[in-house]
Description:
Elements: E1 2-3, E2 6-7, H1 8-27, E3 31-34, H2 37-43, E4 47-49, E5 53-58, E6 74-80, E7 96-101, E8 104-109, H3 110-125, E9 150-155, H4 156-160, E10 166-169
Parallel strand pairs: 5-7
Antiparallel strand pairs: 1-2, 3-4, 4-5, 6-9, 7-8, 8-10
Amino acid sequence: xxxxxxxxxxxxxxxxxxxxxxNVMKRTNDYVRVSTKDExxxxxxxxxxxxxxxxxxxxxxxxxxxxxxVCDEYxxxxxxxxxxxxxxxxxxxxxxxxxEQRKGFLVVDREELKxxxxxxxxxxxxxxxxxxxxxxxxxxxxxxxxxxxxxxxVPKKDISDLPSTYILTSR
Length: 171
């Protein structure tokens, strides 16, 4: 079953990633609370942490919905959401973004990620034609048919190399 906001499998992966990070936070007494629906939708953050502030949690994604497995080498970055509003990087209020990994989370300052997006990713994407094929989304703007979103695919290594990035292990 698909909804306007993605399939059941995608939503379950997102919920599981959120619970996984909250469990780590609870073990270290770092968890404060979950965002309200309004905060999640309008401010683009999921959990409030004592040490990290407002955290946007991104589960691992597939490159294409038809793929059998999630991809560990690339990360999707949202510039515009599905209704055409500012995406979670540009319009979000999160202090950090936690990208789910196999053995934990890649945590990066959202403002630093936004600067990387604006100075390095968007200028490269503007040199090429947008695509509607996720296989061609690396370094290009990608939008799904019938949606007003705009995302792009970047190598995880680029985000790992940002100065604020660190790994938060699950165990």
